[in-house]
Amino acid sequence: MRNNTDGKKKVEKKSIVLTPEFVSDDIYQTLKRYPFKNILDAGCFDGSMSKYFRRKKNSKIIGLDVIDDYESKFDTFIHKDFLECTKEDFEDLKIDLVVSNPPFGMNKQHGALYPDLFLKKIFELFGDKMPVVLIAGHWFLSNNSSRIQYLNSLNMTKNTTLHKNAFAGCGVSVEANILYFNIRLKDKSSILDVKKIEKKQKFKTVAFSDAQMVYMKDNIDNFSGTIKQLIKSEYPDFPI
Question: Which residue has the higher pLDDT, 201 or 80?
Answer without folding.
Answer: 80
